[in-house]
Amino acid sequence: MMAATAKIGFSRNSPGHGEALARVREFTRERFTLSADAAIVVSEVACRAPGCPPVETIVVFWHGETRHHLRFFKSVGDVVFADFPPAWLRPALAVPDGFECDCC
User: Fold this and answer.
1) pLDDT in tens, 6-53
2) Model-level pTM?
3) Which residue has the higher pLDDT, 17 or 3?
4) How would you list the strands of the sheet with 40-46, edge to edge?
5) Whole-angstrom Cα distance, residue 104 to residue 102?
6) Which residue has the higher pLDDT, 4 or 26?
7) CB-neighbour burial class of residue 79 (10 A; exposed 0-12, middle 13-18, buried 19+)
8) What is the tens place of the pLDDT at every residue in 65-76?
9) Strands, E, within the chain: which ranges?
10) Under a CB-based contact definition with an 8 Å cutoff, are residues 79 and 57 in contact?
11) Alpha helices in 34-79 (DSSP H)
């Protein structure tokens, strides 16, 4: 007999997961006053490295030609608007030219 496993959070194919991704995109657009056509990518990733939270939400967005990124150490469904840094901190989220990162 096989043991049942419990699912934590959203299934990537569930309607709830898609809604959570869309909600975080809108939080990003609102917080950083991004235009309707600004590119925003939200993804939820699992981490198996020691000391790493089991699930992270990564947000990447462009303001003009500059790429910015931030991460939340929780699932996308748990991210709330209050988790976002203040808008004045946006320049600190910019990714410098030539910066290499395996996350985003």
Assistant:
1) 344 444 567 788 999 999 999 999 999 999 999 999 999 988 888 888
2) 0.80
3) 17
4) 40-46, 55-63, 66-72
5) 6
6) 26
7) buried
8) 899 999 999 999
9) 40-46, 55-63, 66-72
10) yes
11) none
Per residue in 43-61, is it b (16+ CB within 10 Å) or e — as a string? bbeeeeeeeeeebbbbbbb
Provide the 3-class DSSP secondary structure of residue 40.
strand
Beta strands in 10-93, from DSSP E residues, in sequence order: 40-46, 55-63, 66-72
Side chain identity at residue 23, one-letter code: R
**Identity (one letter) of the amino acid at 2?**
M
Torsion of CA 74, 68, 28, 59, to 10 degrees: -30
Structural domain boundaries of the chain?
Answer: 15-93
